[in-house]
Amino acid sequence: TKIPFRLNQNHALITFEDEEVAQRLLKKGKHTLILDKKTTDMKAIPFTLEMGIKFELHVTISGKKINVSEIPDLSIPDDWMRDKLELNFYKPGQGGGGEVEAVKYDRQSRTAVITFLKPGAAQSVARCSKYPFLASGRCFRLSVSPATDMHLEKFQVYCGISKKTLLLKGIQGMDDDEESIQDMIEIHFQRPSNGGGEIEAIKYVADGATWVCFEE
């Protein structure tokens, strides 16, 4: 997940390609920027982001099970409803189906899980998002979707500290537009004579505030 950071007015964030450059500039601390014969002193400081997380989400689509919803609330016993659902999905001619192994029906939520005997039967049924259901002399439309199994793997929490990024504070007294000042900051910190190096990303805010997102 991306970690958001609030970048306030007259602040800038610079990410260097080389970690050593960022650490060297942080150690120096104070830096002076000259723009159109005007100077401004700024301070390079480290900062800590909020915690971030990363994980893998694994989804397995069942070839034998389907989820059924929007089942009509009929005044018949639950076992009768289960039998009707089994018979309804046993008919391959109505958009797919086949021999049913089990029916798990929940009247309160008006849902059911149908398990077919043969693998692959669920995919043919799930192609029809609305499946016909004949009961009490009427034809209803059931919502059908493939049953899935989801689980997380490799869940990790990591600390949001960027060793290649530094925060600049106190950039004031500049009348130029935001883009020009950002360009001058970038030029200043790219020069080896200033202890700088190649810059990967930069963002300066002259007025208001913005959110900047960091990846791991």
Short description:
The chain is an alpha+beta fold. The chain has helices at residues 19-28, 78-89, 121-126, 178-190, and strands spanning 3-7, 11-16, 30-35, 38-45, 52-69, 100-106, 111-116, 130-135, 138-158, 165-169, 199-205, 210-214. Belongs to the NMI family.
Give a verbal description of the structure.
The chain has 216 residues and is an alpha+beta fold. β8 and β9 form a beta hairpin. The chain has four helices and twelve strands; from the N terminus they run ββαβββαββαβββαββ. The model has no long low-confidence stretch (mean pLDDT 86). The chain has a five-stranded antiparallel sheet with strand order 3-4-10-2-11. Strands 6-7-5-9-8 form a five-stranded antiparallel sheet. Strands 1-12 form a two-stranded antiparallel sheet. The longest helix is centred in the C-terminal third of the chain and has 13 residues. 19% of the residues lie in helices and 46% in strands. The chain folds into two domains: 114 residues; 97 residues, RRM (RNA recognition motif) domain (Alpha-Beta Plaits, 2-Layer Sandwich), CATH 3.30.70. Belongs to the NMI family. One of its GO terms (biological process) is innate immune response. It is found in: Cytoplasm; Nucleus; Secreted. InterPro entries: Nmi/IFP35_dom (IPR009909), Nucleotide-bd_a/b_plait_sf (IPR012677).
β-strand percent reads over 45%
Uncertain runs are: none
Treating each run of at least 4 consecutive H or I residues as one helix, how many helices?
4
- Pairing-aware structural class of the strands and helices? alpha+beta
Pfam family, one: NID
Family: Belongs to the NMI family.
GO biological process, one term: regulation of innate immune response
GO cellular component, one term: extracellular space
